[in-house]
Amino acid sequence: MRCIRILVADRHPVILQGLSAVLEAQRDFKIVARCGDGTTCIEAIRTFQPDITIVGISMPNISGLEVLAIANCESLSTRVVFFATSVEARDLQMLLAAGAYAVVPQDVDLETLVQTLRRVADYRGPLSAEQVVRQEPNAIAERSVTALTDRERQIMRLVSEGLSNKEIGRRLNLTDGTIKVHLHHIFQKLEVGNRTALAAFAMSRNDQSDSSLED
Question: Where are the domains of the chain?
Answer without folding.
Answer: 4-131, 137-205
